[in-house]
TrEMBL record, chain A:
Organism: Mesorhizobium jarvisii
InterPro entries: AAA+_ATPase (IPR003593), ABC_carbohydrate_import_ATPase (IPR050107), ABC_transporter-like_ATP-bd (IPR003439), ABC_transporter-like_CS (IPR017871), P-loop_NTPase (IPR027417)
The protein, known as: ABC transporter ATP-binding protein
Stored SMART domains: AAA
Signal peptide positions (record): none
UniProtKB/TrEMBL annotation, chain B:
Descriptive protein name: ABC transporter permease
Alphabetized InterPro entries for the sequence: ABC_transp_permease
UniProt topology in membrane: Multi-pass membrane protein
Entry keyword annotation includes Transmembrane: yes
Native source species: Mesorhizobium jarvisii
Length: 522, 311
């Protein structure tokens, strides 16, 4: 690679897009987008799901070619024909989904791509990695298997890989979506060090706060078009709140404050009513890849939202599954309306009004290849009126499904569309419609807004509030503390499979929960 | 039963085991490479048949076993090219194409053989053995393991060559990445299609060679359907070996012993119905699958055609 930093004097574009358009069957993914990417800048690409961010990245990294317009590298029009070509031009990409081979070590992953007739040059690599990691202040376990690393560590390896390959432009695609809050801050600091060394960074996100915190320049994409840009001069002049409201204006076309910060409406929890769900000393044995549960006790009254806060992987999923009956409990009791249900099957618990919205929407929540209509009734297969004598009643199903599609605003081309073709937000609506249907009394939500864009996140939250307002008991499991604080009446903190404390959602709840999460008494 | 444990019987049994194991070894090593790269190669039985037929024809008309091995390997590669074109490049279903290739080659080789030799089955002269000095003088072991055709020793050496390839070379890394996470290989700048094509063609060459050995050295003649499931045994071996060539060798020897037992026990005149004895190798397969099948670890992208940018 010949292009050194000297050729990319600050202020000149390393890469520029001019009127780039990309069409896929049925949609225009990018509609004459202009973009200038400069060294020493974090250029944030902000947009909701389906705004065309990923397509833009695909074209910069050589996976796709534009239909119209051109890409300039160092001022010269350059079609980027393949991933190899992109690497040779100094464009390194960290994709949203990890692009490391889990069965190989870190070193082997970094060596991938060398000429096939060569022996892997491990010593050379080690020296180079040592130099780069020292400069960036990160540590990387070169000889660990990738599958043994945390997601944050894997991401550092991917960034390191781009550096080892002399990248001048680093593209980070939705890189914070899998990280812990601490990991996100570390990534932000790392990006800052990288641009200080003269790199250009394109940072893709749909989170406004990250854009404001980490960016130098922001471009906002909406439905494939670039609807606005905040240049660095203006960026520096504005405060974080001002930037966020300007972005919101660009994205939604009207002025409003941080849309996620909704005032928590005062709800009337029927304090004297008997609890709908009572859990006492629930325990689950640990398995090879999941922690167990112990001493889980809580009550939820009608109209109440109880939040479960905690760092991901501390037994949240086990708790939800144990309550739903999908995981065998080794002790304790679960009472629904005062009746013990811990020995009942999954189906029986559901019939009695206990509903569970899984976070694994496509894996266990829906059958991707089945049409939308059938997915509404997956948990009632064989039951009247949708099935009679074992025969599917197409008419009944379609009629009720059409009603649910309207009621829950599911955006689907037709009832016959396989559910996997819908966006994440619309799949979630199908699940909501199914679980909240008649007969629900207690609803467990596991990470209900995970991976959804802003509009769908807000819609899902409203749906959960409405559920509680109808007098149902809601258990809301989430790793997003802001979400819990905005929604819940009380919050319990889970750590290592046990509830370590419960607090009322009052003004100091945030600090008390923070203390519980790091192992201090509230 | 006196004959059963005599020295002569034992060394004949083991000699037969090695002879029976070599085609399985070559097929297993070949399949292993395909699977490592993410291609489930069900067509390997067809590749072996092509190798057996062309290998026999080559050796029969030229009088040279080595030329026969060469034409056999070429026959395997020819079939593998079809597989690579349809499954790797165009991305058709690997299982369907594999079965079609096997069935097609079964018919084609039988037909060609019938045209050429009518109903006669001409034999090749017995293969020359390369006798290893000193080692071949050891009782039992010597005549069993050290009086084989040169290609047998080369095949065993290949086991270690493959081990080196997978553990120590760039190509080995690329192959594994192509099977476990092809998208990662692609964005690292290596052509996944090309990597997989190399693997499939190598499989063809090894399977063809195995078939040629089976016909030219093992049997000394070609009869239709001569492979009799050897390719499928190779698939089982590759799956149980968890990516390690040396386990293919052990597995092949184990199956070789079973196959050899069927002949040896008939020769020894033991009073068991031959049908039962002939079931032995397949019984062994089932036992091995029950014992080790659950621990077989296969590449994550095995059987999935790679398409750039597909999600």
């Amino acid at each position: 690679m010949s292009g050194s930093f000297s050729s990319s004097v600050a202020g000149r574009d390393i890469v520029a897009l001019e009127g780039v358009t990309k069409r896929f069957p049925g949609i225009v993914a990018n509609d004459s987008v202009d973009l200038s990417i400069r060294p020493g800048e974090v250029h944030v690409l902000l947009g909701e799901n389906g705004a065309g961010k990923s397509t833009l990245i695909g074209m910069l990294s050589g996976l796709q070619q534009p239909d119209e317009g051109r890409i300039l590298v160092d001022g010269k029009p350059t079609p980027i024909t393949s991933p190899r070509h992109a690497l040779a031009l100094g464009i390194g990409t960290v994709f949203q989904h990890m692009m490391l081979v889990p069965t190989l070590t870190v070193a082997e992953n970094l060596l991938l791509g060398g000429p096939w007739w060569q022996r892997p040059r491990t010593e050379e690599l080690e020296a180079r990695v040592a130099e780069i990691t020292r400069r960036l202040g990160i540590t990387v376990k070169l000889h660990a298997k990738v599958s043994e690393l945390s997601l944050g560590e894997q991401q550092q390896v991917e960034i390191l890989r781009a550096m080892v390959r002399n990248s001048r432009l680093l593209i980070l695609d939705e890189s914070t979506s899998m990280l812990t809050p601490k990991g996100i801050d570390e990534l932000g600091a790392l990006m800052r060090r990288l641009v200080e060394q003269g790199l250009a960074i394109v940072f893709i996100t749909h989170k406004l706060k990250e854009a404001a915190a980490f960016g130098d320049r922001i471009s906002v994409l909406k439905l494939g078009r670039k609807v606005g840009e905040i240049p660095p001069e203006r960026f520096r002049a504005l405060g974080e709140q001002a930037i966020i409201s300007e972005i919101v204006e660009l994205m939604f076309g009207k002025q409003k404050d941080d849309p996620e910060a909704v005032e928590r409406p005062v709800r009337t929890v029927q304090a004297e009513a008997a609890p709908l769900l009572q859990v006492a000393d629930l325990a689950v044995a640990p398995t090879d890849n999941a922690p167990g549960l112990s001493s889980i006790s809580f009550d939820i009254r009608p109209g109440e939202i109880l939040g479960i806060a905690g760092i991901d992987g501390n037994g949240q999923k086990q708790l939800a599954e144990a309550l739903a009956g999908q995981r065998a409990a080794t002790g304790g009791s679960v009472r629904l309306e005062g009746v013990a249900i811990e020995a009942l099957s999954v189906g029986e618990r559901r019939r009695r009004g206990l509903r569970y919205l899984t976070d694994d929407r496509l894996g266990e929540g829906t059958v991707g290849t089945f049409p939308v209509s059938i997915n509404f009734f997956l948990k009632q297969v064989g039951a009247a009126p949708f099935w009679r004598h074992g025969v599917e009643q197409r008419g009944e199903i379609d009629e009720r499904a059409a009603q649910l599609v309207r009621e829950y605003d599911v955006r689907t081309p037709s009832l016959k569309t396989p559910v996997a073709r819908l966006s994440g937000g619309n799949i979630q609506k199908v699940l909501l419609a199914r679980e909240l249907a008649e007969g629900a009394k207690v609803v467990i939500f596991n990470k209900p807004t995970y991976g959804l864009d802003l509009a769908n996140t807000l819609a899902s939250r409203q749906r959960i509030r409405d559920t509680a307002a109808r007098g149902l008991a809601v258990l809301l499991i989430s790793t997003d503390l802001e979400e819990l604080l905005a929604m819940c009446d009380r919050l319990a903190v889970i750590a290592n499979g046990a509830l370590v404390g419960t607090v009322e959602n009052t003004d100091d709840a945030r600090t008390r929960i923070g203390r519980l999460m790091i192992g201090l008494a509230a | 039963m006196t004959g059963l444990f005599s020295e002569v019987f034992l060394s004949a049994l083991l000699f037969g085991a090695v002879t029976a194991a070599i085609p399985l070894l070559l097929a297993g090593l070949g399949e292993q490479m395909s699977e490592k790269a993410g291609v489930l190669n069900i067509g390997i039985e067809g590749m072996m048949l092509a190798g057996a037929y062309l290998g026999f024809v080559g050796a029969f008309y030229s009088g040279s076993l080595w030329l026969g091995f060469l034409t056999g390997a070429a026959g395997g590669v020819a079939v593998a090219m079809i597989m690579a074109l349809l499954c790797v490049r165009i991305g058709l279903n690997q299982i369907v194409i594999g079965i079609a290739l096997t069935l097609g080659l079964e018919g084609l080789t039988a037909l060609l053989h019938h045209f050429q030799f009518s109903r006669s089955y001409p034999r090749l002269p017995a293969a020359d053995a390369t006798i290893i000095p000193l080692l071949s003088d050891i009782p039992v072991i010597g005549p069993a393991f050290f009086k084989h055709h040169l290609i047998v020793y080369l095949a065993v050496a290949l086991v270690f060559g493959m081990g080196y390839l997978y553990r120590r070379t760039q190509l080995g890394l690329n192959l594994q990445a192509a099977g476990d996470k092809p998208a990662a290989l692609d964005v690292a700048g290596i052509d996944v299609i090309r990597t997989r094509t190399i693997a499939v063609l190598t499989t063809g060459a090894l399977a063809g060679l195995g078939g040629a050995y089976l016909a030219n050295v093992g049997a000394g003649l070609f009869i239709p359907f001569i492979t009799n499931g050897a390719g499928f045994l190779g698939i089982v071996l590759a799956m149980l070996a968890r990516g390690r060539p040396v386990w293919v060798l052990f597995g092949a020897l184990l199956f070789g012993v079973c196959l050899s037992l069927t002949t040896a026990m008939q020769v020894a005149g033991i009073n068991i119905p031959t049908d039962v004895i002939q079931m032995l190798p397949f019984l062994a397969v089932m036992i091995m699958l029950v014992l080790f099948g659950r621990r077989a670890s296969l590449p994550a992208a095995l059987g999935i055609p790679y398409e750039r940018g597909a999600r």
